[in-house]
Design a protein that fits this description.
single chain; about 110 residues; alpha+beta; Alpha-Beta Plaits; 5-stranded antiparallel beta sheet; two-stranded antiparallel sheet; 2 helices; about 35% strand; globular
Length: about 110
């Protein structure tokens, strides 16, 4: 299993849920919204400072199978690109269940 953490602008939260559900990756009800992050707030359990611009961002966590993790990362990345989300204002982590990094962007 892989845990995916992503920080997205508030206006991208529902489109993210929709895209992941449409792709058959995750039931949107299983996505965990971990609260709102504002500029300067530490994000992702202190692993890296959150570098948002001026809009509020939301940290989202989901757990997917090893098999679905690459597809989930692709769907999230495509959505962030399509919505022209500034890479410095988003953050994407993929970890295994023990908390080891497998992928990090942002």
């Amino acid at each position: 299993m892989k845990k995916i953490e992503v920080c997205v602008p508030l206006e991208s939260l529902e489109p993210l849920r929709t895209e992941l559900a449409a792709s058959g990756i995750v039931n949107p009800a299983l996505m965990i919204s971990c609260g709102w992050l504002s500029p300067g707030d530490p994000g992702f359990s202190g692993r890296k400072p959150h570098k948002a611009g001026t809009a509020n961002h939301c940290k989202v966590e989901l757990v997917v199978s090893d098999r679905l993790a690459p597809r989930a990362v692709q769907v999230i990345s495509d959505l962030l690109l399509a919505r022209k989300v500034d890479a410095s204002a988003s953050h994407l982590l993929v970890l295994d269940v023990a908390g080891n990094y497998h992928f990090e962007s942002g």
